[in-house]
Structures are given as structure tokens and as C-alpha cells.
Write a structure and sequence with these properties.
mainly alpha; Four Helix Bundle (Hemerythrin (Met), subunit A); two-stranded antiparallel ribbon; transcription; about 220 residues; 9 helices; Arc Repressor Mutant, subunit A; 2 domains; transcription regulation; about 5% strand
Length: about 220
């Protein structure tokens, strides 16, 4: 197995345990334990940790060393400010490039999301919600944008994933917002698609600002 493959595998495995909440926010990472857990040497592990730090999953503390990014109001707010701009740009580009097949895929994801509402399954909602936004970035077909947006979306998902206190009412409203975005994409209305996408994220940020708690806002 090549060194690059070992690093890629370590990045994927570490990202998965962070996204799942298995590695809790703020936890200090012990490299020896991680190397033993994933069956790799320290060198590829250190490279994987540097990649995840660059992506925003990990932070370096002067006192604790490398830790999983804490869930704070300020962290969530900062990522959502960036997401509003990038999501809008992705929706604008996607409206210009989407096909009937893309629209069908998006509707299929929305149907899955609707099925998670009754009975209410927050974790399943978040999984399908993530797939929805990632697909729009794929349709936009802009590699620099896709790279940066997927990074921000992954962090956003990680910030919300560990909690089950996602508001059902917000999830229902978010689903309707998603449907409006898909309608705009289907009509190739780039201006409206961008406006709706930005409003969608701005609404989540507004609710976050009111609640001052990321655990009370649906994972948009």
C-alpha cells in the first residue's frame, strides 16, 4: 500500500469518526492511540491530521495540542456566513448547467428527506440534507468552488451531527426551501436559484443568532 493511499485512508477514517460524533468536539487527540486504532504508522497519520486541520475539522491548542473543533456559536456562525455566499454561487451555476436527470436526483433526495420527518429521524435528515447540498455543488461543475464549499458543508454537518435536538418545525420549513431551490434550478433561473439558496442559509444563521445555540437549529 502506497504512502498516499495510507494518508487518504487515514483522512477518510478520521473524518468519518469526527462526523459521526464518535470523536467528540474539543477532545484531545493522542497520535499513538489513533495510529494503533487505524493500523498505520505515525508518519501518514501526522499528514492526515494536517489535512484535517487545514479542512477545519481540527484545531491546534497551545495547551492541549491537536483537538477536534469545538462546537461554539462563533464557529457555527463563521462557517454559515461563508456558506451563504458559496451556496448561492453553486446554485447560480447549477441552474445554468442542470439536466432533467439532475433534477430527478434532487427530487429523489427530497423525497427521502420527507420520509425522515414522519417518524422524525434527525440523523437521517442530516445525511440526506448533506447529499442534497453536495449534489448541487457537483452540478455546478466548478472545481475551486466545489473544493471550498464541500469543505464548509462537511464542517457544518459535523457541527450539527452529534445532536438529536434538531427542531422538527425548522426541518419542515427547510424542506420547502429546498423544493423552491430545485424548482428554480429546473427552470434554469440562475438569479432566483442564487437568491433562494442564500436565503435558505441566512435563515438558519438568523435562527442560530436568536437561539445562540447550534444544537437548536436544523442542519441546513
Amino acid at each position: 500500500m502506497t504512502k498516499n493511499h495510507l494518508v487518504d485512508t487515514a483522512v477518510r477514517n478520521l473524518r468519518e469518526v469526527i462526523l459521526s460524533g464518535e470523536l467528540q468536539p474539543g477532545v484531545h487527540l493522542i497520535q499513538e492511540e489513533l495510529a494503533e486504532r487505524f493500523g498505520i504508522s505515525r508518519t501518514p497519520l501526522r499528514e492526515a491530521l494536517r489535512i484535517l486541520e487545514k479542512e477545519g475539522f481540527l484545531v491546534v491548542s497551545p495547551t492541549q495540542g491537536m483537538t477536534v473543533l469545538p462546537i461554539t456559536y462563533e464557529n457555527v456562525r463563521d462557517y454559515y456566513v461563508v456558506r451563504e455566499v458559496l451556496d448561492g454561487a453553486a446554485a447560480r451555476l447549477a441552474a445554468q448547467k442542470c439536466t432533467a436527470s439532475h433534477i430527478a436526483e434532487l427530487h429523489e433526495i427530497l423525497n427521502h428527506m420527507e420520509n425522515t420527518i414522519e417518524p422524525w429521524s434527525p440523523s437521517e435528515w442530516l445525511n440526506h440534507n448533506l447529499a442534497f447540498h453536495q449534489l448541487i455543488t457537483v452540478i455546478a461543475d466548478n472545481m475551486p468552488l466545489r473544493h471550498h464549499l464541500e469543505e464548509v458543508i462537511n464542517i457544518s454537518a459535523r457541527l450539527f451531527f452529534p445532536t438529536i435536538q434538531i427542531q422538527l418545525q425548522r426541518a419542515q420549513h427547510a424542506l420547502q426551501e429546498h423544493r423552491l431551490i430545485v424548482n428554480a434550478l429546473a427552470e434554469h433561473d440562475a438569479i432566483r436559484a442564487e437568491s433562494l439558496a442564500r436565503h435558505h442559509i441566512a435563515t438558519a444563521l438568523e435562527l442560530l443568532s436568536i437561539s445562540r445555540s447550534p444544537l437548536l437549529v436544523a442542519g441546513d
